[in-house]
Structures are given as structure tokens and as C-alpha cells.
């Protein structure tokens, strides 16, 4: 079987990680690296990787089947189009482009050149997400009607270009794209409306976090939130269903499911003292009337990202990350920006 040759474009934090990811795949070999910075090329050479002197030299090498683009967000479109037009397949980092229109141009080019273009939406493989996906499919907490998906950090916006609008910086594009991609992947319904607030607490020209509220046509609602100024973090997932509630605290997969059991509703809750008043409504459910159970095991996707890429090249499989899905995520991101800017709920997505 053919061993495809891929070259990594951009040897920064993610590009160097892709060397490991791509090398682990069957029938795929990292042929070399190109980075515009001499120091990055030197770092790659130190790891024993072949260095290309220019992007043009990568494209001119007939032995190269594909490139992986891991450069700042604003450069993805041009690099992808050049590579496709030079007859290479392309894997591109997220966010694939700065606008949904730009992605359409890439998709058209890929179609014209009959080359494959796939976006590295790797967090579809995250186990915390795959637990939520599995719970929704198994109906562990009945029909899920509300999801809260958050990532909270306290280190501000990292690096250099992520602070700049021109490079596609900001947290909606950086982390939002992952959480929104997961959401659309797991909910089989169109988005009905979106409202959002962006945070500029750190004084950057780009958002350092955001909160968005999304309603789907099937009635499911979701709150998606990214924060970089959270010294106390909220749970990664909080999900409500018709038969219980689930929480996943973090990427360590700690969490639990609490469900009402057969004794639920048989006795009135006992009122509790709450601040300066009494409440029955907010009293905790009685221990006998609820079951606390472990989270389900994460579901599995058919294969890894790069094995899927090779299968797609060999026409043995459809891409797990479809470009049309990535396009819908970009449309949702655009709606989030529009909602925040206009302070209005957006209905046409
Ligand atoms: P980085 O700044 O660490 O690395 C970017 C590298 O690209 C730098 O070494 C830079 O010199 C190089 N570069 C810039 N322009 C170039 C060009 N035209 N040709 C060749 N090299 C060029 O950034 P990063 O954190 O590695 O992010 C890179 C991309 O990967 C971004 O799109 C980012 O969103 C994405 N990313 C994805 C994940 C994920 O989990 N999927 C995680 C981190 C970053």
C-alpha cells in the first residue's frame, strides 16, 4: 500500500505536535518541514526532520502528496489554495479560515483540482466530549435538552499573533471553534438563534473570551463559553436531560450523573433554610429518591484523524470531519460576532 508523504508547514506549537500525530498514522510519513523562521527550521532539523527552504520548494517536490498547514489563522487560505493548485492534498488547522466565504473558495479549488482538503477539528476525539455524545445516544439522562460547554483558564490570551485581529486572534476563533464544532457534531438539528457577549477584560483588540447562547430548531439549548480570566473555573460540561443531570469537571473525566429513581415524587421535599427564607423548590433532592452513577465510557469514532485522512485518500472512507460541517461552524461563529456587535439575537444563520 502507498505510503503518503506529508510536509508540515509552520513548525510552531501545533506544527511540531503534528509530526507526532501524522507519524503515528498507517501509511503516512512526515517527509519534512517548512517554516518561515530560521530558528524554527533549525529546531526541526535538530529533531532529524528534513527542511525545505521555501513553500514553493515543498510544492515543487513531486514526492510530496500532502501538506499540513499549522500557521497563524490568516495565512491558511492562501497556503491551502496554492497547495491544492500545485496538486497536493491539504490538512489544515482550525479555524480553517477567517470567514465562511473563504472556506467556500478553498472547497471550490479542492473540487476543481480533485484533491482532498480536511480540517483538523481534533477535539471531536476528546474523551470528555465523547462521553457526552455517548450519553446523548444512550439516553443515559433521557433526552438532553440543555448543554453547557465551557473552557476556563486564567492565563490570558497566549502567544503573539493570537492578540491581533489581522491574524485571526481572539478566543472565539481559537477555542470557540472547537466547542462549537463539538456542539454541531452532536446535535442533529439546525441552529435557530444565537446571542453572545464577547469579553475584552484584558484590553486586547480581540476577545479574550465569550459567552454564547444557542437555540436549536429541535428545542435543545446550549451555552458555550470560553474564558481566559477565570481564576476559579466552572465545570467543563453541565448537561440536563429529561431523566437527570450530568457533570464533567475537567479533561481528567471526573464527574457524575444524578438521576431520579422510582421513589422520586413519592414524598414532598423538606423545606430548607436558604438565606433569609425557606425553600422547598431549591431543597436538594432526597438521597433515597436519586441515584448517583458514574459517567458512561466515552464513545469511539471509527478511527483516528490521520488514519481517516489516509483512508479518504485511498477512497476507502468518507472524511469524519466534513467541510460542509466546518462551514456551518464558521457561519455560527459569524453569527456570534454579529450578535455580540449588535447586541441582538441573530435568527438567520
Ligand atoms: P505558533 O505561533 O506556535 O506557530 C506558527 C508557526 O507558523 C510559527 O513557527 C511561524 O514562524 C510559522 N509561520 C507563520 N507564517 C508562515 C508561513 N507563511 N509559512 C510557513 N510557516 C509560517 O502557532 P500555533 O499555536 O502552532 O498555531 C498554529 C495553528 O494551529 C493555528 O491555526 C492554531 O489555531 C492551530 N492550533 C490548533 C490546535 C488544535 O488543537 N487543533 C492547537 C493549537 C493551535
Automatic annotation (TrEMBL):
GO terms for molecular function: nucleotide binding. It comes from the Bacteria. InterPro entries: Gfo/Idh/MocA-like_OxRdtase_N, Gfo/Idh/MocA_oxidoreduct, GFO_IDH_MocA-like_dom, NAD(P)-bd_dom_sf. Residues 131-246 form the GFO/IDH/MocA-like oxidoreductase domain. This is Gfo/Idh/MocA family oxidoreductase. Residues 5-120 form the Gfo/Idh/MocA-like oxidoreductase N-terminal domain.
Amino acid at each position: 500500500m502507498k505510503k503518503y508523504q506529508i510536509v508540515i508547514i509552520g513548525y510552531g506549537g501545533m506544527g511540531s505536535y503534528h509530526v507526532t500525530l501524522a507519524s503515528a498514522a498507517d501509511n503516512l510519513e512526515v517527509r519534512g518541514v517548512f517554516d518561515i523562521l530560521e530558528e524554527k527550521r533549525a529546531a526541526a532539523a535538530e529533531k532529524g526532520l528534513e527542511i525545505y527552504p521555501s513553500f514553493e520548494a515543498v510544492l515543487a517536490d513531486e514526492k510530496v502528496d500532502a501538506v499540513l498547514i499549522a500557521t497563524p489563522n490568516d495565512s491558511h487560505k492562501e497556503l491551502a489554495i496554492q497547495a491544492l493548485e500545485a496538486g497536493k492534498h491539504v490538512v489544515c488547522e482550525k479555524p480553517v479560515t477567517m470567514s465562511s466565504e473563504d472556506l467556500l473558495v478553498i472547497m471550490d479549488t479542492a473540487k476543481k483540482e480533485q484533491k482532498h482538503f480536511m480540517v483538523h477539528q481534533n477535539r471531536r476525539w476528546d474523551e470528555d466530549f465523547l462521553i457526552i455524545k455517548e450519553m446523548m445516544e444512550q439516553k443515559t439522562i433521557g433526552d438532553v435538552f440543555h448543554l453547557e460547554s465551557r473552557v476556563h483558564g486564567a492565563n490570558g490570551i497566549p502567544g503573539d499573533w493570537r492578540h491581533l485581529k489581522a491574524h485571526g486572534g481572539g478566543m472565539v476563533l481559537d477555542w470557540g471553534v472547537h466547542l462549537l464544532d463539538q456542539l454541531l457534531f452532536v446535535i442533529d438539528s439546525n441552529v435557530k438563534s444565537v446571542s453572545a457577549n464577547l469579553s475584552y477584560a484584558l484590553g486586547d483588540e480581540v476577545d479574550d473570551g465569550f459567552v454564547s447562547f444557542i437555540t436549536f430548531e429541535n428545542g435543545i439549548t446550549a451555552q458555550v463559553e470560553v474564558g481566559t480570566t477565570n481564576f476559579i473555573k466552572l465545570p467543563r460540561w453541565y448537561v440536563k436531560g429529561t431523566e437527570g443531570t450530568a457533570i464533567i469537571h475537567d479533561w481528567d473525566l471526573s464527574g457524575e450523573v444524578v438521576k431520579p429513581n422510582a421513589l422520586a415524587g413519592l414524598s414532598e421535599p423538606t423545606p430548607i433554610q436558604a438565606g433569609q427564607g425557606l425553600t422547598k423548590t431549591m431543597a436538594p433532592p432526597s438521597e433515597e429518591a436519586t441515584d448517583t452513577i458514574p459517567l458512561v465510557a466515552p464513545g469511539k469514532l471509527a478511527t483516528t484523524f490521520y488514519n481517516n485522512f489516509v483512508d479518504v485518500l485511498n477512497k476507502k472512507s468518507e472524511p469524519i470531519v466534513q467541510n460542509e460541517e466546518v462551514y456551518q461552524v464558521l457561519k455560527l461563529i459569524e453569527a456570534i460576532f454579529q450578535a455580540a456587535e449588535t447586541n441582538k439575537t441573530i435568527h438567520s444563520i
